[in-house]
Design goal:
Structural class: alpha+beta
Radius of gyration: 17 Å
Oligomer: single chain
Order of helices and strands: HHEEEE
Distance between the termini: 10 Å
Length: 107
């Protein structure tokens, strides 16, 4: 069984799922092993949904502040980014972009 990145567990949805699973474990409604299976299924489902269902594209412009490559993961810190979507433009003071290869090493 291929393993998936746990990157999206820190998203709002992933954190809410983790908190709910912790509450269910504490209340004795599920086992920790079942919670791990749920999180692994979440990792798989969110990865597949983002790769097959999201078709939106954006152009970004900004000042690259920091970049690093470690364990096949790129991390970029962009200052004053501007994102251009089809009908919208979004700006921010700073964004952090974490990019992983679509396949894990060894796959």
């Amino acid at each position: 069984m291929p393993s998936y990145y746990e990157l999206y567990r820190t998203s709002t949805l992933g954190a809410a799922l983790t908190d709910s699973l912790d509450d269910l474990i504490t209340a004795g409604h599920i086992t920790p092993q079942l919670a791990i299976q749920v999180l692994e299924q979440y990792d798989k489902s969110i990865s597949e949904a983002l790769s097959t269902r999201v078709k939106a594209k954006a152009a970004m412009k900004g000042n690259l502040r920091t970049y690093r490559f470690c364990d096949d993961v790129w991390t970029f810190i962009i200052k004053n980014p501007t994102f251009k979507f089809d009908h919208e433009m979004v700006t921010a003071d700073k964004v952090k972009i974490v990019a992983c290869n679509s396949k894990r090493p060894g796959e």
